[in-house]
Amino acid sequence: MAENYDFVGWVAHDPSSADGKMKWEKFEPKPFEEDDVDIKVESCGICGSDLHVLRSGWFPTPYPLVVGHEVVGKAVRVGKNVKHVKVGDRIGVGAQSRSCLKADCFECSNGYEHHCQQPGHADTFGSILPDGSKTNGGYADYCRIQGHWAIHIPEAISSNEAAPMLCGGITSYSPLRNNGCGPGKKVGIVGIGGLGHFGVLFAKMLGADEVVGISRTSAKKEDVMKMGATGFIATDEDKDWATKHAKSLDLIVSTVSSPNMPIAEYLQLLRFRGVFIQVGAPEDKIPAFNAFALIGSEIKIGGSQTGSVADIKEMLDLVAKHKTKAWINPTPMTEANKAIVDMTNGMARYRYVLVNEKNGGKL
Asked: In this model, does residue 284 exceed pLDDT 90?
């Protein structure tokens, strides 16, 4: 018998919510279907995406809304069509929580369900479903998702560490894994924030020969080296950095979300047929650059978005095997408004995780 509960969480009503003005109150989840699972939230990471959506930065936000898509907790209600989860299981969900899963959908039928664009696909928060209901996220006591996206958390990983891996982690893992990061490769990670710190940790975990952190200043250099980097470039402190380190890397993953990033200079760091992957998503355009920055050394440039259920499981299994530890700042769920302001102000080292102590979460 499922327990009785209300859906209560930090509700955003307008862009001022990003200034620490979310309100703790009841909200209406989507209607429960037999393909669904309800999670009693123990931990929820704060992602940069949350801030963009709170302030209606990427697109008009469908207020009122609960954000949060790095959710871990216990399954408390499981639809009869969900066979891999039972009540009491510790599970998590990342940025996507619904896809069509139809045989005639190229993305879903080929293991790319996180790219599904068919009716019924949805992000974990902020998506309007075909019945007119809305998805809401994990800054809350409970979160309702499609059972397909309920992922078991390995026993070796704590809920607080697992939560930010479900979006931030997989967003950094996928472009590394899919672009050959491993022995024999030299990898650069641009931006040492929540995503970038996972990039450094995971490039090392995947066995890259060299891992270079790239940031504007050397303020985070000591941390980056402790994470396993072999080198560091501070672009504001060395005016000749692009020339000095030219053609030194095979792969660059850019996690920054600035429309002013020196992308042409980043491309100079790549060796012949090197690859540049952008995962940070500015609210504005990325800077223009000359096509010869690509043509001269046959450079490839692309993007990457999170990962499939199989990708996330693979990442978590490797994290458990290698005992890779996220650098997190556990914070009581009750202090969510302060935490989002602190994150906006660059205080995270390197992912805030909201801990719902009344649901069994542990600081």
From this structure: no
